[in-house]
Specification:
It contains 20 helices and twelve strands. With about 600 residues, it is α/β, with parallel strands linked by helices. Strands 6-9-10-3-11-12 form a six-stranded mixed β-sheet. Strand 11 and strand 12 form a beta hairpin. Helix 3 packs antiparallel against helix 5, helix 6 packs antiparallel against helix 8 and helix 6 runs parallel beside helix 10. The longest helix has about 50 residues. The chain is elongated and about 120 Å long. The N and C termini lie far apart (about 70 Å). The N terminus is likely disordered.
Length: about 600
C-alpha cells in the first residue's frame, strides 16, 4: 500500500486552497448545483415507491381512482425531477466553466508578473498545457464533484434504505453484491490512476514538439526535414496513444463487471422475489420497486468509480496549475519604491551575476563600469562574453548575484519596476511585433502617444518611408510576430517603438544586424543625433560601428570586463593582450 507523508498531505491541502480561491463569484452556483441535485435524487427515489402503490393498491386492487391519483402524483414527480436536473446541470456548467475561466485568468495574470528567471522554470509548452488541458481536466472534475459526488452517494444511500424498508432479507443479497462491486471497481480505478498520470506527463513533451516545429518551420522547409518531423511527431503521438489504450483497457473492465453484478442481482431478485410473492410475504409492486432501486444503486457505484478516476487524473493537473498560481516573482517592488529616475547615469558596482543563484556559474564576474548621462558606449565582445546579460540588469530583468546596478545614482532594486522600465527602452536583435496595427505596436511603450509622435519616431528610425508605401499606412495590420513584414522593416519598427517612449536610456542589443548597409548608416546617424539626449548603450560585434558611434567602449571576454576606455585607442593601441588577440583574429 502506498504511504503518504504529512508533506504530501499538506501539498494536497495547499493545492485545494489555491484552486478554491478561484471559485470566487461562482460560489452561489457551486452551492445551488448540489442542492438541486439532491432534490432531483429525492424525486427519483420516491417514484418507484409510488409505482409500487399503483400496482398494489390500484391495478391489483381494481381501484381506478387510485391509479389515476398515484399516476398524476408520479407525473408531477417526474416533471419535478426533470426541472431539478435541468437546474442542477445549468448551475453545474456555470460554476465549472466560470471556475475554469478564473483559473486561466489568474494564471495568465500571474505569468505577467514573472521575471525572466521565473519564466525559465517553465517551458512555453508547459504553460500552454497548464492553461488548456490541465484547466479542462480540473473543470470536468469540478463539475463532477459538485454534481455526481452528491448524486451518486445520495442515490446509493437512499436506494439502500428503501430496499431495507421494503425487504430486509432480500436487501442482504444486494448488500453483498454492492460490497463486491465496490471492491472490484475501486481496484480497477486504483490500478488505472498511475497510468493516467504517466500519460499526462507526456503532454508537455508533445506540445513542445509541436511548438518547436511550428516556430522553426522555415528551417524545417529550408532543409527539407518535413518527413523527419512527421515521423518524430508520429512516434511521440503513437507512444501517447499506446499509453492511453493501456490505461483505458483497464477501465474497460468497469462495464462488464457492472453488467455481471446487475444481471446477477436481477436474477437473484427475480428468483427470491417470485418465491416471496408466492409465499405471500411480498407484493408484486414491492418487487418492481426493488428492481428500480437495485439499478439505481449499481449505477451510482459506476458513477462513483468514474468520478474517482476523473478526480485522480485531475489531481496532477491541479498540482501543476497550483504551481503556477503559487509562484512568486523573484523581482518585486520594494516597500517604498522610488517613482522617478533623475538621470540616465549608470553604474555597475562590482557586479556578479548568475542565471541560477547558488550554482557558482557566474555569467558576469566583478564588473565595475560607470557610464555618465548622455554618453554613448559600445559593448564589444565575443559570443558568450556576457554582453546581453549585462544590459538586461539595467532594466532589472534579472537581479545581480553580488554588487549593485545603479541608475541615476540609486540601486535599481529601489525603483518601482514600471517607472524604471519606462525610462529604459530596449531594442533587441530578435525583437517581437504583436498582432495589431503598426500604430498599436508603436504605442506599446507609451499608450497615449499621438500619431504625430509615432510618425516622428518612425522618421528617426527610417521606418516612415516604407510605412507610407503601405495601403493603410499606420493602420496596416501586423500579423503575430510581424510575419508580414521583412526582418529589416521589423527591426526599424522596433527601434521606432523604443524611441516613441522618449526614455532616458536606450539599449541597442545588435539592433542593426538585420538592416541593409544604407539603413544601418541611417541608424548610426540617428544614434549620433541622439547623443547628449539619451544615454545610449550599443551592444555589437561590429568594431568599426563601435568606432564610428561610441564615445567609449567596454571590451568583454568570458564574462569579464578586460578593457574600457576611448574607442579609437582600444582598437589602435589595445592595452590588454586578449583584446589584441581578439582584434587580430577578427580582422587579420
Amino acid at each position: 500500500m502506498q504511504k503518504f507523508s504529512r508533506r504530501d498531505e499538506t501539498t494536497t491541502m495547499n493545492t485545494l486552497k489555491i484552486l478554491g480561491r478561484q471559485v470566487k463569484e461562482y460560489k452561489r452556483d457551486s452551492i445551488l448545483c448540489p442542492v438541486f441535485t439532491a432534490l432531483e435524487v429525492l424525486m427519483e427515489v420516491l417514484i418507484p415507491f409510488v409505482t409500487a402503490a399503483i400496482i398494489d393498491s390500484g391495478i391489483q386492487g381494481g381501484d381506478m381512482r387510485k391509479v389515476l391519483l398515484y399516476g398524476a402524483l408520479m407525473l408531477v414527480m417526474a416533471f419535478l425531477s426533470l426541472f431539478f436536473g435541468m437546474r442542477a446541470g445549468t448551475y453545474g456548467a456555470s460554476a465549472s466553466s466560470g471556475f475554469a475561466c478564473n483559473l486561466r485568468d489568474a494564471m495568465y495574470e500571474n505569468i505577467q508578473t514573472f521575471s525572466f528567471s521565473d519564466i525559465d522554470k517553465y517551458s512555453t509548452a508547459g504553460l500552454v498545457t497548464r492553461m488548456t488541458t490541465d484547466v479542462t481536466n480540473v473543470q470536468n472534475a469540478y463539475q463532477m464533484l459538485i454534481r455526481m459526488v452528491v448524486r451518486a452517494p445520495l442515490m446509493l444511500i437512499c436506494s439502500m434504505v428503501m430496499c431495507f424498508v421494503i425487504s430486509p432479507r432480500l436487501s442482504a443479497v444486494f448488500l453483498v453484491a454492492l460490497i463486491f462491486l465496490g471492491i472490484v471497481l475501486f481496484s480497477i480505478a486504483l490500478k488505472s490512476m498511475p497510468m493516467f498520470r504517466r500519460v499526462f506527463d507526456k503532454y508537455d513533451d508533445l506540445n513542445a514538439s509541436v511548438q518547436e516545429n511550428v516556430s522553426g518551420i522555415r528551417v524545417v522547409k529550408a532543409y527539407v526535414r518535413e518527413d523527419y518531423e512527421d515521423k518524430k511527431f508520429s512516434k511521440a503521438s503513437e507512444n501517447l496513444c499506446r499509453m492511453f489504450v493501456k490505461a483505458e483497457s483497464i477501465l474497460a473492465f468497469n462495464n462488464p463487471v457492472m453488467m455481471l453484478t446487475i444481471y446477477g442481482c436481477i436474477i437473484a431478485l427475480s428468483w427470491f422475489g417470485a418465491r416471496f410473492i408466492v409465499a405471500g410475504s411480498m407484493t408484486t409492486g414491492n418487487v418492481t420497486s426493488l428492481f428500480s432501486y437495485v439499478m439505481g444503486m449499481m449505477m451510482s457505484l459506476m458513477m462513483l468509480s468514474m468520478v474517482f478516476v476523473m478526480v485522480s487524473m485531475s489531481a496532477a493537473s491541479g498540482r501543476r496549475i497550483a504551481q503556477v498560481l503559487n509562484e512568486k516573482a523573484d523581482l518585486t517592488n520594494p516597500a517604498e519604491p522610488v517613482t522617478e529616475v533623475p538621470t540616465g547615469e549608470i553604474d555597475f558596482d562590482h557586479v556578479c551575476f548568475a542565471y541560477k543563484k547558488g550554482s557558482g556559474e557566474d555569467v558576469l564576474h566583478d564588473i565595475d563600469l560607470h557610464i555618465k548621462a548622455g554618453e554613448t558606449i559600445g559593448i564589444i565582445g565575443g559570443t558568450g562574453s556576457g554582453k546581453s546579460s549585462l544590459v538586461s540588469l539595467i532594466s532589472r530583468l534579472y537581479d545581480v548575484t553580488d554588487g549593485a546596478v545603479r541608475v541615476g545614482g540609486r540601486d535599481v532594486r529601489e525603483y518601482d519596476l514600471e517607472t524604471l522600465r519606462n525610462q529604459v527602452a530596449v531594442v533587441l536583435q530578435k525583437n517581437v511585433l504583436f498582432s495589431g496595427t503598426i500604430l498599436d505596436n508603436l504605442r506599446w511603450g507609451k499608450e497615449d502617444a499621438t500619431l504625430e509622435e509615432c510618425q516622428e519616431a518612425c522618421q528617426q528610425a527610417c521606418a516612415d518611408e516604407f510605412i507610407q508605401r503601405m495601403p493603410d499606412k499606420y493602420d496596416t495590420w501586423i500579423e503575430q510576430g510581424g510575419t508580414n513584414v521583412s526582418g529589416g522593416q521589423r527591426q526599424r519598427l522596433c527601434i521606432a517603438r523604443a524611441l516613441a517612449v522618449e526614455p532616458d536610456i536606450l539599449l541597442l542589443d545588435e539592433s542593426t544586424s538585420a538592416l541593409d548597409p544604407i539603413s544601418t548608416s541611417q541608424i548610426e546617424d540617428l544614434i549620433g543625433d541622439l547623443k547628449q539626449q539619451y544615454t545610449v548603450i550599443m551592444v555589437t560585434h561590429n568594431m568599426q560601428q563601435a568606432v564610428r558611434i561610441s564615445d567609449w567602449t567596454a571590451f568583454f571576454l568570458l564574462g569579464e570586463l578586460i578593457e574600457y576606455g576611448d574607442t579609437e585607442q582600444i582598437f589602435t593601441m589595445p592595452k590588454h593582450k586578449r583584446t589584441e588577440e581578439y582584434i587580430s583574429g577578427r580582422f587579420g
